Give the backbone structure.
Amino acid sequence: MKVPYSKILVYLDGSEGSINALMYSILLAKSTGAALHAVYVVNTKALGDLVRSHVFIDQEKKEYLDDLKKDAARHIRHAERLASSKDLDITASVAEGSPHHVILDYIKSSGIDLLAIGSVNAIRSRRDELTSENDRMLRTSPCPVLVVRDSDDIWEEFGEV
């Protein structure tokens, strides 16, 4: 019998929800033999929007971007350590741009057949619906999307309690 998913991609954004998705994806990949990929996207589109709306000036943008890149590298190292703790290889990378565009391009170029994301936040307004990156990925992904809800069970099963 063929495994239904041979390449899993987990989207990391630094939230607890994305860490839950990562841990669940590691366990899923380990149990199915699927290859695991993780991508952290530095949202340069949102940063550009902040500069255009005069929330940041250009110098602040550079400093903030540097901080975001450091955070991204830290999260990728954490993903690699978690995967290694379960004796699983992971292809992890940092990208820049609009998260849903970067993730959709990665899915297509890498032949991903399952996207794992953290919980989709409750939509409180039409603007939230239009700006939620997880929601956009959920609606536009060319492959099935696994939404991993926050759960203590994942932490317990992973052994990180």
